[in-house]
């Protein structure tokens, strides 16, 4: 474990992004828009041009959202070497291709090239850091900071360390991402696919099965989400929205009512046993997530949210007034 | 099969809603707001009061969206009996509890009480109509019209007949729902859970497993969706959004790049074989869904959509200007 204390998360001014594809380039755009100096490196020969095009494409959206004071595309430097990119980094975000061996070696190289105590985060979509930090001299500062595409617009970052990651590094990264404008879920333990990816991967695999079996087309799958549950999920998660299907009885009534359907062949994924412990955990979890809001409050909130989302995306119901 | 032709879907003025819980009551609110006369029936003793409270709770949202000319809560009649409710129906929407035997008997009763030729739709979340239409004298006009909660705001209706449903009834219902302001997916064949429910059920079961195993809390699950993929799914489905993860190479590159991850233990749902046929089907399906829009067009559309949704739901990134 390193002995140099990392900089205060709120005082970071320089970020290094390694890997400049869709995700890495998206991180570059995000950090530039939030007013950081960004140094990027990518081994591809045409990486700099592609990266600048990606940042240019994102910039109108970021300008519309509002740039941080001093934010500028001119504050991007594309380094010639990994060592140059990391030499004075205050934080490193790695977004290399999803290949375990490559990640292992790259993280070891980054660790060797980055000042002691500086946190190095991987954008990996699903590899546990425990499996990736095996080659690094100082694995204590290596962790996962998993974003969603595009990282410059989707707030979520899932932060989780590996077995050899220092708890202080996890806390530092969570705080840094928050300062940098992200919405952070700090996970207490490693879970393949983290949280959001497990959920969307289950949906995605069911979709792939349906296409593979001629049960639905790609367009039907996409439409069924954007015209259906996707409208709710933009602002209220699947648990709270399902709680509202239970009427005034909430999640408890919903589980009691639809419990038997849980064994229906509605997806290829087997359901867990809906025993008392799970039922009670879901009910208690929804109460916690509701944070004092009554079912009526949540219904009103959901209704307003759906209307706002429909209006914002130009989809008020046919015949409705503007 | 009945011989009386059903009314022109565009000239329907009277709708009957049987079952007045969360879904049935939501249908009542929707049809009232779209300017229909609505007759409702529910066997519960306090059904009328509950129904009127539900409609009252929904009305501000519906008023905000814009009511159809002549729309009024006064056009709701709560019938004393099922027979009275159906006597002059031009369309019947059944939203009884999810119990197969109950649905079977109720649909037979509705068929007996409703004028010949009038279409009867079930809101069932997942029973195939083939299994529900067994007791009815005229099963040809029975079909599924599956809504999402709340039916007065979420546009999607999945329409599908059973083995004994007449094709013309399916076409009539699809057209009727469109006239009534819904977004319709007409399915060519029965599939347990239809389309959207299969997708959201896969996600939901993974969520239940995670809570059951202490892998994530209800709040983390909900936050991971609303701060992550849920923002995109409000206006762009999972297939097209994943295509954008492939950069300029789109879905093809995405599948080639993330293909190996498909076998990762990111969810409890086994992935299908990503063979050439499935790969090509996904690529072709995304091209169809994109309908001529380039990857750059889709990226710009996604970016604008996420910004609009964030702004509409009061969640511009921290530090961003309004």
UniProtKB/TrEMBL annotation, chains A, B:
Subcellular location as annotated: Cytoplasm
Reactions catalysed, semicolon-separated, are: carnitine + NAD(+) = 3-dehydrocarnitine + NADH + H(+)
Which residues bind NAD(+) per the record? 19-24
UniProt keywords (A-Z) are: Cytoplasm, NAD, Oxidoreductase
Please tell me which top-level EC class this enzyme sits in.
oxidoreductase
Looking up InterPro entries in the UniProt record yields: 3-OHacyl-CoA_DH_NAD-bd (IPR006176), 3HC_DH_C (IPR006108), 6-PGluconate_DH-like_C_sf (IPR008927), 6PGD_dom2 (IPR013328), L-carnitine_dehydrogenase (IPR026578), NAD(P)-bd_dom_sf (IPR036291)
Q: Report the leader peptide range.
A: none
Q: Quick one: which pathway? A: Lipid metabolism; butanoate metabolism; Amine and polyamine metabolism; carnitine metabolism
* Location of the 3-hydroxyacyl-CoA dehydrogenase NAD binding domain: 15-187
- Cross-referenced Pfam families: 3HCDH, 3HCDH_N
For this record, the Gene Ontology CC terms, alphabetical, are: cytoplasm
Q: What is its EC number?
A: 1.1.1.108
What processes in GO biological process is this protein linked to? carnitine metabolic process; fatty acid metabolic process
The family annotation for this protein states:
Belongs to the 3-hydroxyacyl-CoA dehydrogenase family. L-carnitine dehydrogenase subfamily.
Q: Which PANTHER family match?
A: 3-HYDROXYACYL-COA DEHYDROGENASE FAMILY PROTEIN, 3-HYDROXYBUTYRYL-COA DEHYDROGENASE
* Quaternary assembly: Homodimer.
Q: State the name under which the record lists this protein.
A: L-carnitine dehydrogenase
UniProt organism field = Streptomyces albus
